[in-house]
Amino acid sequence: MRLILTLLLIIPMALYYLGLYYCPETLAHLEFMGWPLSIFLGVVVMVWAVLIGGIFAIYYLKRELRDEEEGGEHS
Asked: Which of 54, 69, 24 is nearest to 42 (CA)?
């Protein structure tokens, strides 16, 4: 599960930064809802990172609580 969440976090960021590296002018001139695409995608990537971070935290908190209820130690 940790690997899946890590990939879900890193892949969109990597694609965004590769897009900024290889075609910054294109992303700056294209617009989405009146915003330059580079800024819009940056906001989307940041919101996505917060969402995945929240899912990651909730998953591991639930796992830790479950381990405490079972009486086992989590390493």
From this structure: 24
Q: Which two tokens stand for residue 40?
A: 């819009």
Residues 11-41 have pLDDT tens digits of 999 999 999 999 999 989 989 888 899 999 9
pLDDT category at 74 given cuts 50, 70, 90 is low
- Tokens 């079972």 correspond to 70
Distance CA 68, CA 37 (A): 46
Asked if 10 and 17 count as a contact pair (C-beta separation under 8 A), the reply is no
Contact 36, 30 (CB under 8 A): yes
